[in-house]
Amino acid sequence: MHSIMRTNRNDIWVHPNAIIRLFDKSVKLLGNKPLLKNRKYAPLREAWIASVFLLGIRELSKKTWWLRVNPEENDVGDLFAWSYVEMSQNQTDAQTLSIQVFTHRKTDSGNVYDGIKRKLNNRDLKGCKLVCYLMKDELIKWDYINNQIKSLSPKLGEIWIIGNIGNRRMGVFNIFPNKQNTSINLDNNYQTIDEKTFIFPFRGLRKGKIFERLGSMVHLKPDFTFEDI
Fold first, then answer.
1. How far is CA 120 from the centre of its chain?
2. Reading across the β-sheet that carries 198-206, which strands appear in turn?
3. What pTM value is reported for the model?
4. What pLDDT band is residue 4 in, cutting at 50, 70 and 90?
5. Is residue 27 a contact partner of residue 14, using CB atoms and an 8 Å limit?
6. pLDDT per position as a tens digit, 147-168
């Protein structure tokens, strides 16, 4: 089984905590500019945004998620997330999410709603959760944004905004179709049970197993590629 997992890299899912750790280490190793500007590290940037989002919805739903980057660049979702609940010894309820992320930077024109509208106009996001990383200092006008988005009749599932609210805390806001919010402390999301940092989910139960734990068998690099240890 291990030889299959080590060649099927697209099926390795990563705990969000591990991605937060990798991003912080990469900033120290490479510096802000290369990590934030170089296309080589775009998968890690997108995975970091999605990880903050998934840690936020874990606070709201108490579900733990694992993440992988979509290898198809032109597909709807940038990333996928996977979670499971053991209903009984022989029954598992697994759930997947398709996630599209983007950044609304200080240099981008308009407010965050303008950025969301541009994204909705440019891509078919049916079935996706759209997550915007807001880098501007901007008051989020929940009711206004929610009403404006409703008038567009989008086909996507949900729209979320994440943003820095100070002292290594990130706010996570659901603005469509519902209104809910939470926050996470990035420094409190460093610990992961090592054997669950990287997992290989099975498409069906195999002798009662839901996934294989890779533990320290693989290493994730800043360009979001894996190498054997």
1. 19
2. 180-185, 169-176, 158-166, 129-134, 91-104, 79-88, 66-69, 13-14, 198-206, 209-213
3. 0.86
4. very low
5. no
6. 999 998 888 889 999 999 999 8
